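pipeline: protein-struct stage 2 | run 1193 | TBL3 protein
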Amino acid sequence: DVTEMEEKEAQAKQEEQIMKEQELSNLLHEKRYLKALGLAISLDRPHTVLMVVKAILKEPEGRRRLEENIVRLRKDQKEAVLAFLVTWNTNSRNCHEAQTVMETLLKHEAPDNLLQFSGIKSAVESLLPYT
């Protein structure tokens, strides 16, 4: 019977998730935005990533700090952010943050690199009507 083992695994995963949530909260409180962005992306939380972006933009020189953090993300993290900003861009409350992140990606990534992103074609097609 593997039921008990499966329950323990599920409980361990849930505890790990809670620990990551707490870590994310601590990172935001400490204003360690790069780690917070990375963790929110790894947790696949578009809304949390948006909240981190908004928190960065509220800081003095927030736009510059956002650029610094976005540029330092790995390629897979940038791809995830691109997918998230497609959704953010459809809502007028979040479109400015989406446009700011998109501008940063376009400014700091070579066109050839952008073409290598997974889902870039569908992202561009989704962004065009709202941009």
